[in-house]
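Morning F.,

Quick status update on the modeling queue. The single chain you submitted on Monday has been processed. Sequence for confirmation:
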Amino acid sequence: MDEFLENLANSVGLPVGILQIVICQIASIPFGAVCRYLPPAMRWWYNLVLGLLFTLFLYRTDMVYLLIGAFTCYGAIRVLPPHIRVPVVWVIAFGQLLYSHFWRLFGDDNNWRPEVVNTQLVNTLQLIALAYNSVDMNADPKTLHQEELNDRLEKIPTLLEVLSWLFFFPCVVGGPVIMFNRYKAFVENPKLPSCSEVLPLQLMQAIPLAILSSFEDKVPFNVVLSRDIPWYHQSLWYKMAYLEAACVVVRCKYYFVFSLAHCSLLSSGCAFSRKAEPALTYKQQFRKFGLWHVCRHFLNSDADSKGNQWGDLVNMRPVLWELCPNVATALKDAWNINVARWMRVYVYQRAKRPDQGRPTTQRMLLTQLVGAVWHGFFPGYYVFYAGVALCVFAGRSARRTLRPLFLGTWLKPLYDAAGTVSVWIGITIPGVCFALRHWSDCWACSTNLGHFSWFATLALLGFCAVVKRVLPRPKKAA
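Structure tokens below.
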């Protein structure tokens, strides 16, 4: 099998690991179409068997690690009392993930096989969520947020149900994260609506992403590591634009994989959530929301003309990310959306249970730290999340001090455009560091660019502080 895959990869010009992932994602689309026509009782087994076959194809014997984590955490949820259940599952699930990250840190970067950690990342979050949801069964509804009420269990599921959920074949490569109640509602839905309108749109989005991702070798990151090449002597703005283009091409690889995953969720019917208002045409969207909205939601497959909603499990919104006016909105609504939701519900909201009010800096920093550790131990991940936290602070400050000056004026679109440019500037160096991963490469990258992203974000924070002091404060009502 390995020899056949190597020969096939050489003929199509892809690394073997990437080829395996693409094969699984493409195969999931017709298998998903079969799933929607099966009776609910058979779907549990169908999804589990296919998921196990996919993991065996991807990871060979390494899939044992996934089974060990699933059985151990499920046993803890079944047996342990509620007051220690969540901490124990955190230790087991996250401990196994960190063990894999530790060996990945000292492993071979050129290893051609897919890493089992790709599936562990998703399973870890889902198992921890299951532990919380099982504890919430006995909690006072008044103490829970609405999302926690939606996710909490009525009873602890069976082992078959949990394994079918964890190894759901469209998601074994890398997500999205699906809550158990959402998966159960899909499996037990006897009549799923047709996806004939939205699936072609999602496929149309995947094709150009695949083409763009093929240019990754044309815009390499390693040029930023040396001062002995002509590239280093280009202007700062040229180098920043080049690296932003390189980041876009690298992100297209992830956009493509998640687009294919969503295609299989659409074909299986799992992406269907509810009935609501029919989708607006692009002409109607332009009249109601303007050109900026149409650009950011181009080829959107969230709804069809019959009012069926398909967008709750979308994991990436490429155009929205690239044109987003602030980092907080981008992380929430455009990049790895379901992981961001998990971080918000199971870390940010639960970090300080009695507080239902304004977000706090401590909880935001804790959420960023958990996100960095979840990705692994490479220093580049922590540099990236530090940059994200700084950009979030700057975005909040600009929203409170500068945005009110532009609301209701013809300059508001210019403010939004300036926000998009500031996101590009602030995230470029941290984004490159995320891809480079190693500390020496990250330092060389930032140094060779004069630490421009960091200084520009700090300058925005300083400017907002000055504006806040200069502008008169609104008088409080008596």
